[in-house]
Structure formats: C-alpha cells, structure tokens
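Morning!

As promised:
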Amino acid sequence: MGLLIAFRDALGLFFATWRWTFRGSLFRQRKVFLRQLHDIGNRSVLFITVTLGVLGVISVFQVLLQVERILPEFSVVGPAFIQTMVREFAPTITGLMIATRVGSGIAAELGSMVVTEQVDALRLCNADPVDYLVAPRFWACVLHTVLLTVYGGVVGVCCGAVVAHEVWEIPWTSFFSLRLVELSDAASGLMKATAYGMAIPIAAAQAGLETTGGSEGVGIATTRAVVNASFAVVVLDFLLSGLSFLLWFQGR
Amino acid sequence: MGAAAPEGAGGGPVISATGVVRRFGGVPVLDGVDLEVRRGELLGIVGPGGGGKTVLLKVLAGLLRPDGGEVVIDGASLAGLETDGRARLWERFGFLFQNYALFDFMTVGENVAFPLEQRRPRAPEDEIRARVATRLSEVDLPGTEALFPNELSGGMKKRVAMARATIADAEFLFYDDPTAGLDPVTSSKIFGLIARLHLPRGVSVVVSHDVDRMRAICRRFVMIDRGRVRFDGDLDAVHASDDEMVRTFFDESGLAL
C-alpha cells in the first residue's frame, strides 16, 4: 500500500513538473536551471569517466578471457561490446551512478530547505516549490543523463578498446567496428537514458519534499531517494528492455 | 523601549480558530485551541518552549492543516480554500520564520525583493530595488544586497528575514521569535519596527520569549502551554489571574507584576 501511495505521489509530482514547464518555469528559473546544469553535469563527469572506464576495461578483459578459451577469433568482440554498451551498459550504469550522486544531492538539498522552512517561505510568497525547485532540477537531470550516457558509452568503449589492443593485440579498426550497431540500439539506449533522467529527480525530489524532523529526517530522505531512484532505474531498465525487444530487436 | 503600543483593536475577529488540533506522529501539539484575533490587533503569543506556539502560527497561516477544528480568516474557512484561494490569501501574509528561512540560492537583495516580485510581477525594478534598500537600512543592514545568506551571522539572517517578511506591507504579519539571537539594541529596534509596520486594519501576531519588549507594543497576550490556551488577556488580567503558572511565567519573563 505504501509503495502504491509513493508511486501515486511521484506521478503527481511528475505531472506537476510538466505543468510548470509548460507555464515557463525554465525561463523564470533560468539561473537555478543553469546552476543545476553545472551541479548535475560537470560535477558528475569524473565520476562517470572512472565508473564507465573501469567497467569497459573489466568487461572487455573478462569477455576476451572467456572467448579465448572457446574461439580463436576475436573480431566480433568489439562490435558486440559496443552494441551492449549502447543498448544497456551506458544508459543503465550512468543512470545508477546519477541516481546515487545526483539523487542524494537533490534529496539532501530539498530536505534541508524543508526543515529550515524555506519551502514554507516559498509557498507563503505564492511561489510553488515544484516551479522553483523541482522543474529546474528535473530538466537539468534529463539533459545531463542523456549527455553523460553518450559520454560514458564513448569512455567505456575506448577503455575497453585499449585493453583489447594492448593485451590481445586486436586491431583498432576491428574493435571499433559498428557493424552490429543499428539505429534501434541507439534509440533504445537514449530512450532508457531519458526515462532514467526523468525518474531520478522525481524520486529524489519527492523524498526531499516529504522530509520531516531535523537533520535525521534529511538523512532518512537522502537514503530513501537513493534507494527509490536506483529501484526506478532497475525497474525501468527491465520494462524498457522488454519494450525495445518487442519494438526493434525481435528476430535480430 | 523606543516603541509605542499601537492603538487597540476596534474591529471584529478577522482570524478565528475553533477547537484546533494538530498532531505529529499521533502526539497532539495543539490540543483544542480556541483563539480570535481582531482587526487592528497586535497580539503577543507567549509560553514555555515546545508548547505549540510555532505550530499554532503555521496553522493560522494555512501552512499546516489542522487534524481537527477550524480556522477562519476574514470569513473564509482555510479548509474550504482551493489552491487559488489559498494563494490569494497568502498574498496578504508576511511571515518571519523562526529559522530565518532565507533562500540560500538567492542573495540578500533577491531574498528581500522576492515577495514583492511575486505579488507585483510588473513593478519597476528600480522601485523594488529602492524599497529593498530602504527596508534593509531599517533593519541596520544597508548595502548587504549582494551577500548570500551563508555569508551572514545568525542575527543578520534574522534581520534580513524581518525585512523580507515586511517588505510587501502585508495585512497579516506573523513573527515567530523575531529577536532570538539579537543584541538588546537591535531587539528594541525590531520591536519598534514591528509596531511601526502594523497596519491599523491589519493583524500582527508576535511569538516571542522577550516578554519585556513585547509589553511595549502588545496590549493582549495569549499564553500557549502544552497545546492549549492557558491565558488570554491584557496585563491587568495577568495581575488578576489566579493561575500561579501564568503569574510566575510573566513575572519571570520580565513583566513586573
């Protein structure tokens, strides 16, 4: 029952965010939006670089280690890895990383504003907290989740290519071949990134705005935000992978 | 003290709370509060810490929904107000929060100008800037417009919050502990400002422990204790009260009996 109520509230916040967006929230709150773009995007670059880079290195290393035992031929490893990266790894790992780093940040910030009565002050000034606080963070997160997914995918593939070339002497051109990647793979990856980019700030903002009590409440809200946002990423991954399969991947 | 008590209230009740109950986690913080505030009145709310004063202010302002009872403001029940009605009501409010509630993503100038900009979106920028500068000078913070709240001391934050609460000349002015953490001179100035900004047709409600200074501006006091109204009356009624706690509280708070 609690989960259903939380889902209903999250859906309400999601639609309220779109409503305020159509009423020009981003234009009015452009300063907050630009600051959020910096906070969510620029400060996540190193985090995503390291995570996706290490993932690329380890994945390619492990795959080549297994393939070496079965086949003497490595030419399909690079294209298959790129396809998996585009479809799955880049959006989902980036999404999970943003859910932890950005989700916790949004919940802590909004939670602190609730306990210091800033949200009450906004309401009394006839400023809707969704307009002022949620919408700018929502769109900054959507934009940067997509951009960081593309960036993280490139980093992961490049790091994997270095391992493939340096350890197994696979030619660069063979590894970087895009022969298995189709437009539908990119569409699937971008669809997931966009969905995660929307779900993460909503889950985090909801947790933050429902904060009660003092600093202990902020801590609880932050934990709840990370759990809910990560859970949302995993559930969306499952649902969107199924949808992609039905739409594009069947028979490939 | 520097502040003269404003003229007494002449109008009928403009804020009326009947049997207000508010619980947190099942524990009643307000437990059947009945209170009326008349137009033109400058009311002082006192009482021991944790008695429910702040919660009462927030319930009266419509920021917290009561679990029981009713709050009526200017003839309209808060429970019956939709979002738009509540927004129109809040345009008539100024609220100084206990924790300052300054927006940490805005400068001092933007914080103080915010209620004006929200209520009068087409007001000329120069006019808003001038009013902000004037109000900041009145709280002894001239030239601080460009600072951010995290660059201010606690007392300075309180004074900025005071400037923001009063900038729009609101009809209903609620002050939650306006002088906590301030030095005596600034405290007297703040109480003087509260008295000066009180509109004859408006309502000002001050929650404070600084009963000595409140005496200079308030004629009527309400004492909230454990979620209930323990005392409601003027200083003469305090003298006449047979409630030992009321007399002791006012005595120990600085009111000579």
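Residues 125-138 of chain B form the longest helix (14 residues).

Hope this helps with the figure draft.
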